[in-house]
Amino acid sequence: MNKQSEKFTLAGGAGNIECVLDMPAQSPRGVALVAHPHPLYGGTMDNKVAQTLARSFVGLGYVAVRFNFRGVGASEGMHDEGRGEADDMAIVLEQMRARFPSLPVALAGFSFGTFVASQLQQRLIAAGEPAERLVLVGSAAGKWAMPEVPTDSILIHGELDDTIPLAAVLDWARPQDIPVIVIPGADHFFHRKLGHIKNLVTQLWRRTDQSSL
């Protein structure tokens, strides 16, 4: 993806965790962890939506870190219905905070990865150390018990998603009063719509930056 990419492994609770880190061209302003879709349905850190999220963050000046959940690729262990996967993501987060101690960390996920990232954010909030912000694409509402998320989370969904229907995501987001950005004509995997994801994440992140000045 990037000339400044680094592949490495971390010791996790179920064995090694396979990771890839992409550095921005400039001095990094933050770190973003990206969680991939369901491993039992072919999800890996090389999924196109996960890669698009990573590219979006690199373009914003973030170090983007993707990793394979336990039992995927060179990551060891077995699928754990999201519990162990959240543990894996927490270990990656801990290592990135140690490596880049002065930088904020954002969390992102696609499909099943939104469930994992949301669980981790819930843990971090309880510990008083929340991530900077969440980006959830194809949120897994109705498929898994999605927790509540901060109101500044970015939620993006496809209008024609028949894996996780838009109505289920709206039902989850409505009581939290969080807007859901709908990409017209997009299916679950955002075929031919990946550029919209990148543009939306970039624009919304920069808009937040400007409003905080």
From TrEMBL:
Q: Does the keyword Secreted apply?
A: no
Q: Which InterPro entries match?
A: AB_hydrolase_fold, Hydrolase_4
Where in the sequence is the signal peptide annotated? none
- Check the record and name the Pfam families matching this protein: Hydrolase_4
Sorted alphabetically, the keyword list is:
Hydrolase
Provide a Gene Ontology MF annotation, just one.
hydrolase activity
Coiled-coil ranges per the record?
Answer: none
* Alphabetical list of SUPFAM superfamilies matching this protein: alpha/beta-Hydrolases
Spell out where the chain crosses the membrane: none
Domain named Serine aminopeptidase S33: residues = 47-146
Q: What's the protein here called? A: Alpha/beta hydrolase
